[in-house]
Amino acid sequence: MEKQELLYEGKAKKVYTTQDPKLLIVAYKDDATAFNGQKKGTIHGKGAINNRMTNLLMDRLEREGIPTHLVEELSGRETLVKKVSIIPVEVIVRNIAAGSFSKRYGVEEGVVFDAPTLEFSYKNDDLGDPLLNDDHALALGLASREELALIRKYSLNVNRLLREIWGACGITLVDFKVEFGRLEDGTIVLADEISPDTCRLWNSKTLERMDKDRFRRDLGGVEEAYVQVMNRLTGGL
Ligand code: ADP
Ligand code: UDP
Q1: Rounded distance, CA 160 to CA 189, Å?
Q2: Is CATH 3.30.470.20 the classification given to domain 85-221?
């Protein structure tokens, strides 16, 4: 399968059409952005790591009963995926307070929740991805009540499985963001990516940050952290 036209260029990936109208090729870039695109930079080698890591994790999730868009990895940076119509809802699952949760509610980073907490935000860069509840998502016509319930169920299962996978590598899954989309027949599948760009990952022993927060907060050692997370995953899977 080969790339045809560039369908979309986002902040971290390019999406191409293929000869098959049901399939797309996603190409991962080294570009990094934060704070809704205000901070820009490059994380060398990130594209290849995020491509591989997303595929390893999605393959594992698929085998555990979560439908995903993954078809096959084509090369270091490129993957063939099922074309979906993305539901413009970012699903964030949190196990530990951090980032915008800590800021919004005045909770110190690192406070462990009794149970995972799930939140939705409206995937809309112009509006700054505002927080959404189920009723807001329904009012905006983003998804049906049944779809929201399924998305919630899948996301919590993804959290349970990812926590196990990362835990076995000595990494604590603090929080993450996932996106879902609809296939032509309406089936909901997990799409986009799962990587240190979209997850907060802390070294379980030292609590050292091993994800995009190193870039966001200018902590240094950004490339090294991505490589280390990848090595731990391939060693631990
Ligand atoms: P952004 O749009 O936030 O800048 P990216 O650079 O990651 O993000 O661009 C990838 C885009 O492709 C995202 O908007 C994402 O929702 C979309 N996408 C991911 N998987 C699929 C898929 N299987 N089919 C169609 N679009 C997808
Ligand atoms: N996240 C993401 N894309 C976004 C917003 C958040 O991948 O547009 C991820 C982020 O990497 C973190 C989790 O979702 O793992 C929760 O992010 P948070 O709401 O704390 O926002 P941030 O601190 O990134 O502004």
Answers
A1: 17
A2: yes
Rounded Cα gap, residues 31 and 10, in angstroms: 10
CB 193 less than 6 A from any atom of ligand 2: no
> In order along the chain (237 residues), what is the average pLDDT of each group of 10 residues?
96 97 98 94 98 98 98 98 98 98 98 98 96 98 98 98 97 98 98 98 98 97 98 85
Report residue 115: phi and psi, to 5°: -140, 155
In this structure, the residue with its CA closest to atom 2 of ligand 1 is 10
pLDDT for the residue numbered 182: 98
Q: Locate CATH 3.30.470.20 in the chain.
A: 85-221
Task: Say which residues have a Cβ less than 8 Å from residue 134's Cβ, sequence separation at least 6.
Answer: 120, 145, 148
pTM listed for this prediction: 0.97
Assign domain 6-82 to its CATH architecture: 2-Layer Sandwich (3.30)
Residue 5 confidence (pLDDT):
98
E strands within 140-184?
171-182
Domain with CATH 3.30.200.20 in the chain: 6-82
Residue with CA nearest ligand 1 atom 18? 192
Residue 66 Cα to ligand 2 middle (Å): 22
pLDDT tens digits for range 87-117:
999 999 999 999 999 999 999 999 999 999 9
| Residues 18 and 25: beta-carbon distance below 8 Å | yes
